Amino acid sequence: MLAEPDKYHEVRYTLSRALDKSAAVVQRVADEYYKSFGRYAGGLIDMYRMEDAETVIVAMGSVLGTIKDAVDEMRTPGRRSGC
Questions:
Q1: Please, which residues bridge with residue 66 across strands?
Q2: What totals of helices (H) and strands (E) does the chain contain, helices first?
Q3: Rounded to 10 degrees, what is the CA torsion of 18, 24, 26, 29?
Q4: How far apart are CA 7 and CA 16, in angstroms?
Q5: Please, which residues bridge with residue 82 across strands?
Q6: Predicted pLDDT at 1
């Protein structure tokens, strides 16, 4: 976000507060999506097979399906991985 120097801190503070409030909205929309379509598309953070993971892949977007397949393949020989 661009702001004049004398307004920069005020703008950053306002942005920070808006982001803090958005977490609840994102989760609510994810829950509503699940109720409507029967598929969970994730909220802010969606973890997969993380309970004992030593190797973790962090990503977002359409690549997550492929990464989940890779995690499953890595776990077959005993690598404790997750995403």
A1: none
A2: 2, 2
A3: -130
A4: 14
A5: 56
A6: 59
What is the arithmetic mean of pLDDT over 54-68?
91
d(CA 16, CA 26): 16
68 contacts: CB under 8 Å, gap ≥ 6 = 48, 49, 83
Instruction: Give the C-alpha distances (Å, rounded to integers) separating 68 from 2, 51, 62.
Output: 38, 14, 11
Cβ 83 vs Cβ 67: under 8 Å: yes
Domain residue extents for the chain? 1-42, 47-83
54 vs 67: CA distance, rounded Å:
15
Residue whose entry in the numeric block shows the structure tokens 């802010």 = 44
74: tokens are 């890595």
pTM above 0.70, yes or no: no
